[in-house]
């Protein structure tokens, strides 16, 4: 195949390094930057080429980088992940798109049995620099299997790293950092927030990938969230502030390894913690945070750690998802319970 | 249906079909018996009686020295296999996966590969490992429980054993795609990949997907299916309605059935297939028609599901004996050669026993090592806490 010709005009640098972008566009630019920086970075997935992905995250990349670097793959998720393993052994850095969260399970075997374990099995002789991008979570009125939050399965699996972005700037930088990482990274994208806008400074020095971040300081209670629930938590903190309650909001960003030092520091000040997540609560990221916080902050806690999550059910029909998903009111209700303990 | 015990110990007045050496078609279809009939498409160059026969599409010029080499390979790897099996019985290995009966399939395929080719094995590929220059002692850790394969898969171009059935087929397809993307396909200097799996694996979705991927990306990949007739207790009839090599047609690439007990035919067909792949005409499926002469693993008891006379039937097709007969008949080898190979096998067996019984257990730190390439502070804290706890027992103070 002939070498792909780069259409530089499509990637023209903006006049100012600070742009207002959607999460979707920030991801697109981040992927483009990663492909420009390293010819071994390739994209694999269903409908990611000509169509640009069902969410257009890979829009224009195949046109500019060619069909050998942006692969419209056959329709089988185990095949996407399993061939990415072989390409990674060959020296490539595959970025796999799973079209929707609920479709990752055919690839689960390859992720857990090969992607996660090959470095361990070979004692470092084989690395697995694979990124698996997963649009996740509900709130878009979709049919079954399109609104799930399967992140805990992967955080539970040794050998994988799991992150989730919540805003355009993080989307732009975290996707590039995930691609640079020599470990496999599950990259969970908050699909219902894809079109939310924010400022992205493409010349800034980004923070580290596997670090949590305090987005809003507060004194009365701590909210911890990731992905789509960060926006919900920030909205809740704004609403609480109107009533005179000061909530600290922490964006977890990394789900494995968990970076809970900022959470411990916060809880030691506020004495109260509410964890917010769309995923069902049992044996979840939220459970793990609750366990670790009670272990590390036992004498600082003024109330039990509370979780505001999706219910322990399959994702419901979409007409019920507003009831299923944590929202501002449920978060504030939990904050009230914590404060009244 | 009669119980498995009755099959292995037939009553004197049992129906003739149950005790005959040849299974009936009904028994084969019912999954009671494996067949030894390779069919009209079976590629064979050396008959079980050691007669050299020709084939219109696949022939091979083989020198006396080359054939002596193949014989030596097969004898030595069989000795490795028998020694390791015995080491398991003595408690030195937790489990062993015997290759007995599949020596020709593996040595023929392995010796067809070039150093620049890549191989993705399943877990019974000790003969392939041998041809890739892996020391047999390097295989033992997997089965003793001291490691998960100690060779360097990049340097040896031999992937770690894959235990989840069929996973490696997709990994091999991806690797072969990479060879193509790297521009390493298209002429006689091209690279190719071989992927090894069994008859049972052909039912796995990953194998199907591997066929699809390799086909649509024109990957230089030889799918090498060792049909040893049994997936633990299930005969090939539980996996497929039609001969496995015929499946290739549905994916749009050639499928060849070769006598897997014939090292010459296996070598010839695999060389051809690899050359096709390195020139850009891949993928290709080879079904090596063979027989698992021993148990699935040392934990298995084949007497519960197959007749011992089936084994007798296949003993007549032994992969090593036919080469020996041919070498003698051609006067390509004398007793000195055969005795030399035996002596070499004895020495190899001794080395294996010596090595195995002296393998140290890995240190406790190994539990935590290399889980990640770039580390994980939480895991490191867990490790330190555990090692600190363990060190409290040092010196017998507790």
TrEMBL record, chain A:
InterPro entries: THDP-binding (IPR029061), Transketo_C/PFOR_II (IPR009014), Transketolase-like_Pyr-bd (IPR005475), Transketolase_C (IPR033248). Its cofactor is thiamine diphosphate. SUPFAM superfamilies: Thiamin diphosphate-binding fold (THDP-binding), TK C-terminal domain-like. Keywords: Oxidoreductase, Pyruvate, Thiamine pyrophosphate. The keyword Membrane does not apply. It comes from the Bacteria. GO terms for molecular function: magnesium ion binding; oxidoreductase activity. It holds the Pfam family Transketolase_C. The keyword Oxidoreductase applies. Residues 21-196 form the Transketolase-like pyrimidine-binding domain. This is Pyruvate dehydrogenase E1 component beta subunit.
UniProtKB/TrEMBL annotation, chain B:
Its cofactor is thiamine diphosphate. Residues 1-22 are annotated as: Disordered. Keywords: Oxidoreductase, Pyruvate, Thiamine pyrophosphate. It holds the Pfam family E1_dh. GO terms for molecular function: magnesium ion binding; oxidoreductase activity, acting on the aldehyde or oxo group of donors, disulfide as acceptor. It comes from the Bacteria. Residues 72-360 form the Dehydrogenase E1 component domain. SUPFAM superfamilies: Thiamin diphosphate-binding fold (THDP-binding). GO terms for biological process: branched-chain amino acid catabolic process. The keyword Magnesium does not apply. The keyword Oxidoreductase applies. This is Pyruvate dehydrogenase E1 component alpha subunit. It comes from Lentzea albida.
């Amino acid at each position: 195949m002939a070498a792909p010709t780069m259409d530089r005009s499509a990637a023209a640098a903006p006049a100012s390094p600070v742009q207002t972008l959607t999460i979707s566009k920030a991801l697109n630019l981040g992927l483009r930057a990663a492909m420009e920086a390293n010819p071994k970075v390739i994209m694999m997935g269903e409908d990611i080429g000509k169509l640009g992905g069902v969410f257009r995250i890979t829009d224009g990349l195949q046109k500019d980088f060619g069909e050998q670097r942006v692969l419209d793959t056959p329709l089988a998720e185990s095949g996407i992940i399993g061939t990415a393993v072989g390409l990674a052994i060959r020296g490539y850095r595959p970025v796999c798109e799973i079209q929707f969260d609920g479709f990752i399970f055919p690839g689960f075997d390859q992720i857990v049995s090969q992607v996660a374990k090959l470095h361990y099995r070979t004692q470092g002789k084989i690395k697995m620099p694979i990124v698996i991008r997963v649009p996740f979570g509900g709130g878009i009125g979709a049919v079954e299997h399109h609104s799930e939050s399967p992140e805990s399965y992967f955080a539970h699996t040794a050998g994988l790293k799991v992150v989730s972005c919540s805003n355009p700037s993080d989307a732009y930088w975290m996707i590039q950092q995930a691609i640079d990482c020599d470990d496999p990274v599950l990259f969970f994208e908050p699909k219902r927030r894809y079109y939310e806008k924010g400022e992205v400074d493409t010349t800034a020095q980004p923070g580290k990938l596997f670090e949590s971040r305090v987005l809003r300081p507060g004194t009365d209670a701590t909210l911890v969230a990731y992905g789509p629930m960060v926006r919900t938590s920030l909205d809740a903190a704004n609403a609480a502030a109107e009533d005179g309650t000061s909530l600290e909001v922490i964006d977890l960003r990394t789900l494995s390894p968990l970076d809970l030092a900022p959470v411990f520091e916060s809880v030691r000040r506020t004495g109260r913690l509410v964890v917010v997540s769309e995923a069902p609560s049992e044996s979840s990221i939220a459970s793990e945070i609750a366990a670790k916080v009670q272990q590390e902050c036992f004498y600082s806690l003024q109330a039990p750690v509370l979780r505001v999550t999706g219910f322990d059910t399959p994702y419901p029909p979409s007409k019920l998802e507003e009831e299923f998903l944590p929202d501002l009111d449920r978060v504030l209700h939990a904050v009230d319970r914590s404060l009244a303990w | 249906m009669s119980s498995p015990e009755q099959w292995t110990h037939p009553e004197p007045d049992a129906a003739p079909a149950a005790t005959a050496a040849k299974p009936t078609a009904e028994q084969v279809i019912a999954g009671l018996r494996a067949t030894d009939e390779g069919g009209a498409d079976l590629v064979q160059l050396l008959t079980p009686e050691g007669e050299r026969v020709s084939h219109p599409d696949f022939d091979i010029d083989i020198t006396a020295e080359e054939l002596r080499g193949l014989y030596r390979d097969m004898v030595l790897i069989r000795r490795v296999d028998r020694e390791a099996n015995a080491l398991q019985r003595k408690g030195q290995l937790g489990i062993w996966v015997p290759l007995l009966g599949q020596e020709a399939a593996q040595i023929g395929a392995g010796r067809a590969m070039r150093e620049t080719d890549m191989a993705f094995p399943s877990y019974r590929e000790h003969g392939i490992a041998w041809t890739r220059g892996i020391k047999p002692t390097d295989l033992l850790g997997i089965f003793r429980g001291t490691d998960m394969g100690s060779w360097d898969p990049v340097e040896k171009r031999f992937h770690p054993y894959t235990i989840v059935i069929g996973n490696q087929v997709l990994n091999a397809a991806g690797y072969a795609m990479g060879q193509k993307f790297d521009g390493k396909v298209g002429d006689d200097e091209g690279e190719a990949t071989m992927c090894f799996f069994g008859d049972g694996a052909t039912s796995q979705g990953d194998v199907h997907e591997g066929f699809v991927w390799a086909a649509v990306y024109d990957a230089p990949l030889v799918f090498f299916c060792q049909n040893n007739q049994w997936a633990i207790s299930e005969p090939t009839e539980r996996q497929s309605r039609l001969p496995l090599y015929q499946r290739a047609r549905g994916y749009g690439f050639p499928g060849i059935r070769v006598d897997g007990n014939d090292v010459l035919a296996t070598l010839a067909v695999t060389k051809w297939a690899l050359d096709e792949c390195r020139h850009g005409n891949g993928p290709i499926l080879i079904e090596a028609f063979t027989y698992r002469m021993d148990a699935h693993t040392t934990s298995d008891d084949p007497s519960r599901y197959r007749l011992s006379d089936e084994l007798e039937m296949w003993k007549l097709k032994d992969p090593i004996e036919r080469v020996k007969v041919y070498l003698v008949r051609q006067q390509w080898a004398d007793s000195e050669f055969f005795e030399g190979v035996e002596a070499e096998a004895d020495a190899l067996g001794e080395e294996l026993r010596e090595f195995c019984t002296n393998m140290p257990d890995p240190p406790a730190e190994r539990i935590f090592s290399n889980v990640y390439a770039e580390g994980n502070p939480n895991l490191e804290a867990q490790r330190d806490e555990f090692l600190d706890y363990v060190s409290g027992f040092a010196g017998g103070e507790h």
